[in-house]
């Protein structure tokens, strides 16, 4: 009896929904003689407009990359008095912002004659770049070889292999060591014909992807009414490319800040005007933070207006807040960006529009981010607001 009552109450149409249904029934009855497509279209004008603009991804997977939505983060916008917007890069077909870079580094190799039909792509990566490359390589018919530190989870290795990649886990050593996974990837490519190392950290085709796609999309989605942009730096393709585009088209008006986790040198380098490269601590975030200034970042680092240091506590708190307040299931790197956007909005004051990047979802990290045991082990349990701990459902 109780269950039936709940169902009836939950599905009882409101006055507004009854009006909509009545209008729809008039416009789109099952009788073909009374069906009106234009009237149906009028029920969802924005969806129809977007569909017309996007058309068909006629080149398959690769032409579905990009043109992601810009989502207003309602609670943070209300709290800061700013428009805080997140670019939903988790809606790329491979699930992350790295799809853009993956496509551009491969296209760059093709255009330079370094990669021909039947060739092999090689990269050193432990995360989303490898997944993006795997998707693009499958769609274009290339073989993919991935080198990664053997400290990575078996789940990551299995996923890349499932996507068709040949994976070599190797000992985790510093970049300066010739046995570092990046150097091994480079040697593999150099020893083979029709084989290219895409070199995501220092290949500026990565940066170009964001100059030509992400930056223009943000500018047009906001109709040029953007005051600030912030995101973290891993390879630095996103922060550098978007900064270059927005600074150029706004004639320097848009402020750009790099967000940085513990254990990275970017915050101290930018904050000190390039005089310091202090590196303290470590972070639970993946794929962001750096121990050096990459070639993707070098041309544009002087365009940055500043840097924001974001602790792991802030990132974890925002993981849970985004889920509870916005319905967004985001990874820690995405939530570091959201925390940075919040801090930047507070810094700039009410009335501003601040944009950041929602890099990927939490699906690949759920066994940690929502695990009580893992959070306690990392000393981050107290960072989760008490009323949101109900989401930590894993032991």
TrEMBL record:
Listed GO CC annotations: mitochondrion
Top enzyme category: transferase
One of the protein's GO biological processes: cysteine biosynthetic process from serine
Recorded metabolic or biological pathway in which this protein acts: Amino-acid biosynthesis; L-cysteine biosynthesis; L-cysteine from L-serine: step 2/2
Assigned EC number: 2.5.1.47
SUPFAM superfamilies: Tryptophan synthase beta subunit-like PLP-dependent enzymes (SSF53686)
Residues of the Tryptophan synthase beta chain-like PALP domain: 64-360
Catalyzed reactions: O-succinyl-L-serine + hydrogen sulfide = L-cysteine + succinate; O-acetyl-L-serine + hydrogen sulfide = L-cysteine + acetate
Pfam families noted in UniProt: PALP (PF00291)
UniProt keyword Transport present: no
One GO MF term: cysteine synthase activity
Cofactor requirement: pyridoxal 5'-phosphate
Keywords annotated in UniProt: Amino-acid biosynthesis, Cysteine biosynthesis, Mitochondrion, Pyridoxal phosphate, Transferase, Transit peptide
Segment forming the signal sequence: none
Subcellular location: Mitochondrion
Job of this protein: Catalyzes the conversion of O-succinyl-L-serine into cysteine, the last step in the cysteine biosynthesis pathway. Can also use O-acetyl-L-serine.
Family: Belongs to the cysteine synthase/cystathionine beta-synthase family.
Protein name: Cysteine synthase 1
């Amino acid at each position: 009896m109780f269950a039936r009552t709940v169902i009836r109450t939950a599905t009882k149409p409101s006055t507004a929904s009854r009006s909509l249904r009545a209008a729809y029934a008039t416009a789109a009855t099952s009788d073909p003689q009374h069906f009106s497509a234009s009237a149906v279209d009028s029920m969802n004008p924005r969806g129809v407009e977007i569909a017309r603009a996007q058309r068909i991804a006629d080149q398959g997977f690769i032409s579905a990359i990009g043109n992601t939505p810009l989502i207003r983060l309602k609670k943070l916008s209300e709290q800061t008095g700013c428009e805080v917007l997140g670019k939903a890069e988790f809606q790329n077909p491979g699930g992350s912002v790295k799809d853009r870079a993956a496509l551009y580094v491969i296209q760059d190799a093709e255009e330079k004659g370094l990669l021909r039909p039947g060739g092999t792509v090689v990269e050193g990566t432990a995360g989303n770049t490898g997944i993006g490359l795997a998707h693009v390589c499958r769609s274009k018919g290339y073989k993919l070889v991935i080198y990664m530190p053997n400290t990575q989870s078996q789940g990551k290795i299995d996923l890349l292999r499932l996507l068709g990649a040949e994976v070599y886990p190797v000992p985790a050593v510093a970049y300066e060591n010739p046995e570092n996974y990046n150097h091994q990837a480079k040697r593999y490519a150099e020893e083979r014909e029709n084989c290219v190392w895409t070199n995501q950290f220092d290949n500026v085709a990565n940066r170009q992807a964001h100059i030509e796609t992400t930056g223009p999309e943000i500018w047009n989605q906001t109709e040029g009414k953007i005051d600030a942009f912030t995101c973290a730096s891993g390879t630095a393709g996103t922060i550098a490319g978007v900064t270059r585009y927005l600074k150029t088209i706004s004639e320097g008006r848009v402020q750009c800040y790099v967000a940085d986790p513990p254990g990275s040198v970017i915050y101290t380098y930018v904050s000190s005007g390039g005089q310091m490269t202090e590196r303290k601590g470590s972070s639970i975030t993946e794929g962001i933070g750096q121990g050096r200034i990459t070639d993707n970042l070098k041309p544009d680092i002087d365009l940055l207006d500043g840097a924001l240091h974001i602790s792991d506590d802030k990132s974890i708190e925002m993981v849970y807040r985004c889920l509870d307040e916005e319905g967004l299931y985001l990874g820690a790197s995405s939530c570091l960006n959201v925390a940075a956007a919040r801090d930047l909005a507070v810094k700039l004051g009410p009335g501003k529009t601040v944009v950041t990047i929602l890099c990927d979802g939490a699906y690949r990290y759920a066994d940690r981010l929502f695990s009580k045991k893992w959070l306690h082990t990392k000393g981050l349990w107290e960072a989760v607001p008490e009323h949101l701990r109900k989401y930590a459902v894993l032991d």
